[in-house]
Amino acid sequence: MPGLADTTVRLLGQEPLAGRLPTAEQLRIAEILDKAGFAYLEVSGGGCFESAVRRGVESPWERIRALKSRVETPLGLALRGRFLVGSRPVDDDFIRRFIASAAASGIDVFRLHDPLNDVSNLREAADAVAKAGGEFEAGLVYSPGRTDESDPLMEQARELPSLGATRILLHDPTGSLQPHRARELVTGLRDTTKLPVGIYCQGSAGNALAAALEAARAGAELIACAFYPIALRLHRVSGEAIAEALTGLGLECDIDVSALWEASDVVDEFIGDEPVTPLAPRIAVRAAQHDLPASLVAALESSLRAQRAADRLDDAIEELVRIRAEVGYPPLASPIGHVLGSQALLNVLSASRYSVVVDDVRRLVEGRLGTSPAPIDKNVQRAVALTADPESAENAAALDLEEVRAQAEGIASSEEELLLLGLFGKDAEPLLHTIRGRSAGDETLATGGVDQARAERIRELVRIVQETGIGEITIEESGMRVSVRRTDDRAPAQQGRPTRRRCRRPSRLRTASSASRRRWSGRFTALRSRAPRRLWRRASPSVWARHSAFSRR
Asked: 381-413 burial, b if ≥16 CB within 10 A, otherwise e?
């Protein structure tokens, strides 16, 4: 009987959906999914940690604990081998402490894959998971090229039982896994390892669902999915569709589909009236043609547009494919795909191959990230050696937690915060300062008679005003009125210089208490990515916003 693992909560916590739903609503969704019958809920991963650090509002550790306190279904965490949730490898002690912190926060299942399919990089993490009492799911990355051949995957898979893996999970980040290959690989992995096999796939045009169904027919015991509105947006396997299809095929699937539709209604309240973000045909076609992740092709085009070289997308893709072959056909799972993409852009825009080498490409060629599936081109090895900078060699070493601790005095007050600082460096400092100042902010709002739930909504409104060109937001409903206004406090202009109007933080906040507990903040969540005038069309009769005159000169 195939089981399902839901990834919706993780996908809601990372780009492009991060911040679209308030945390309270994500917790509500988790409570609904808790009674649906999933094997586990995958609630976090590298994308969630990166989004949390970039937004600087909520600690990813707090989010995991909040979810754990509300559900009984096991919680899962996706990790990138020695990279964990970052883009730089860390040392063994760092890995042990991170996994111990994750287990203490409530993670039960650890889905570990190495971006290079070098399973020796999973050994320390596997030991740490065992010591923490967690379940270790070993991922193998499917990516066309050298790694889509069966023999290399089976060779790596043979080592996984000795690492303590409880399941093999075939992971397809490019959307290129065809149904017949899914059947072959699931059968081969099961026969080779004698372990249960699962599948995590994605892709447009329905191939993800087709591959998942064929894998189930071949004996896959776990299929990763998301409920319908999220699966539709991100080209994942729909939980509703796969559950009903499996039942129709005579493969019993003990999932309460009505609970998934109930969870879909919660998403509909916030982003249901927004059209599905289209994937430009130019991007989708090239991604499918070259077996590349669509997000990687989109990132290449965005970077080229910024350099006024959008017409060179085909050149960049060809260079990316060429670089991948030269460095040993590594899979294109994050972060390796974006590392190779960065090198491809440098080679194309500079019209000189490897005159400048990206640091992570250097580490890959020198073997510091692990072993590539195929031999590395000798010319590339020579180019990397000739451009080496001995003074920066120490910066290429894996992160050492004690070194981070020595540099983090006065910034990180707990091991969890220290881990964030080690993984994301200075990018994590704004989040840590926010966490530090949260208690003071709570006291300020509490003195005005505002409860914790409303305090969070008020902070959300403040952030909307700060991040957009909106001059003022006023909300009134059932006796409660909140106004957040941007003011233009500027110093007197110096004589002989023109006056310049600049955005300032809201300096006036008015609240009135009320017994109402209705949720209203979510209606304005979408304003972060919309033009201010769109707000007028979204307002309801009981909730409105005024866009005051605000211009930049």
From this structure: eebbeeeeeeeeeeebebbebeebeeebeeebe
Q: 3-class DSSP state for residue 516?
A: coil
Model confidence at 443: pLDDT above 50: no
What DSSP designation does 394 have? G
Question: SS3 of 454, please?
Answer: helix
What is the reported pLDDT for 491?
A: 40
Helix or strand run (H / E) with residue 105: helix 92-105
Q: Is the peptide bond before 506 cis (omega within 30 degrees of 0)?
A: no
Contact 14, 47 (CB under 8 A): yes
Handedness of CA 515, 517, 518, 522 (dihedral sign): positive
- The pLDDT score that the predictor gives to residue 146 is 59
Report CA 172 to chain centroid distance, whole Å. Answer: 16
Q: Which helix (H) or strand (E) holds 479?
A: none
Positive or negative, the Cα torsion across 472, 473, 476, 481?
Answer: negative
Contact 214, 246 (CB under 8 A): no
How many alpha carbons lie under 13 Å from residue 259 in its C-beta half-sphere? Answer: 18
CB 43 within 8 A of CB 85: no
Handedness of CA 413, 417, 422, 426 (dihedral sign): negative
Two tokens, residue 292? 């590349």
* Residue that wins the pLDDT comparison between 450 and 41: 41
**Least confidently predicted of 323-332, 361-370, 404-413:** 404-413
Q: Please give the distance of CA 53 from its chain centroid, rounded to a whole number.
A: 11
> What's the rounded Cα separation, in Å, for the pair 459 and 461?
5
**Does an H or E element contain 43, and which?**
strand 40-44
* DSSP H helical ranges for 166-253: 179-193, 207-217, 228-234, 239-248
Euclidean distance between CA atoms 80 and 335, whole angstroms: 8
Q: How confident is the model at residue 496 (pLDDT cuts 50, 70, 90)?
A: very low
CA of residue 538 relative to chain centroid, distance: 28
How far, in Å, CA of 50 to CA of 400, rounded?
Answer: 20
Domains observed in the chain: 3-271 (3.20.20.70), 281-396 (1.10.472.90), 448-490+500-538 (no CATH)
Q: Judge contact between 340 and 143, C-beta under 8 A.
A: no
Residue identified by tokens 């959307």 is: 175
Cα separation, 121 vs 83, whole angstroms: 10
- What is the gyration radius of the CA atoms in the chain, in angstroms? 25
User: What distance in Å separates the CA atoms of residue 38 and residue 5, rounded to the nearest whole number?
Assistant: 6
What is the residue type of 533? Answer: R
Amino acid 277: pLDDT: 58
pTM score above 0.70: yes
Specify the pLDDT at position 450.
Answer: 44
> Do the strands 506-511 and 480-486 form a parallel or antiparallel pair, or are they unpaired?
antiparallel
- Using DSSP, state whether 138 is helix, strand or coil: strand
